[in-house]
Amino acid sequence: MKQFVKAVGGLKHSVIYTDTDGRHYRFYGGTWAWRNHNPGNLRPGFYANKHDPIGSTHHLAIFPTNALGRAALIDLLQSKYANCSIHEMIYQFAPPNENPTKKYEAYLRKVTGVTDDKKLRDFTSTQFKKVWEAIEHFEKYTVGEIVEVYPIFGVQIIGKNRYQYCLNEGEWISESECILLAKKRKVELEICLSKLDNQFLRTPPNSLFQKRLEDIICKKS
Question: Phi and psi at residue 49, in whole multiples of 5°?
Answer without folding.
Answer: -65, -20
